[in-house]
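REQUEST FORM: STRUCTURE PREDICTION
Request ID: SP-0412
Submitted by: Lab K.M.
Chain count: 1
Length (residues): 294
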Amino acid sequence: MRGTTSERLRVVRPGGHGAGWLNLGWKVLLALSILLLMLIGIPVSGALVWTLVGATLLAWGGLFAGIASSNLFEGSLSLRVAWGALAVGAYGALALSGVIVGPSRMADALGPVAALTLAAGLGRKDLSRALRDWALVMALALYAALGVQAMWLFATGLGLVAFLVAALFPPLIFEAIMLLLRRAGGLRERLRSGIALLLATLIGVVVVSFTQFNSSIPLGWSLIFHLIVGILIGGALLVGLLTRPLIEAASGAHQSSERSVNMGRALVELSHGPMLIALIIYIPLRLLGMTTTG
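STATUS: Completed
RESULT:
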């Protein structure tokens, strides 16, 4: 019998599931597959490359919304499928308009999408339950659409290499360090999390420095650059850590045993970190006018 969402959140805690290295292995495999899909068109024209990148990101967000919906909605199978399809449709309407046209068009589409998805639940007898399900539809669709939009603008504005080293790898590094520290034992969970957060941020900053930083910049500006990058990556990893129970509930971790890890769970958990980092890094860059609109 499916438990309520609140019950699942009580069961799933950061580091509570022992899927460990197998789950991380799935995430690394998925990350490499995503990068391969993005980079496979490099020998052809630039327009085709970015079309392929955009299509990959859109499909990634759609899978995230669909899998999360299947784990979070309750009720009969037909009802869960209907609300899940509605969440994916709402995500598609928001994300397509944002990636193809720009962020302003996503904002324009938000009102009609919210109204149409709300109207879909008005025929249900339990309107309070319908309203909660509608809120979940919009939350999933909006988060996935904003995450994909941020990753798209990140990749087009700063390049695929920057997206790889600053958004996709740090969450994987953080999880690997957490697993190593947990295996070593002798440390409390909060201390392990703090050490993993610090080391993952440091590694991320070093990699960004080697791949993105211009060595001719004066030392003072160099220190400021590294500090800002560290705060942004570390802040995103911290938010990801604090919200990990939520994303594990959406991934279906509450239904998985220690050795029962699947690609769907790994994809949802993998998506959370890059989306957060892309959002947190892109917003100040956008405000400073350092990126294009794609």
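NOTES: Residues 82 and 168 are 32 Å apart (CA to CA).
Reviewed by: T.R.
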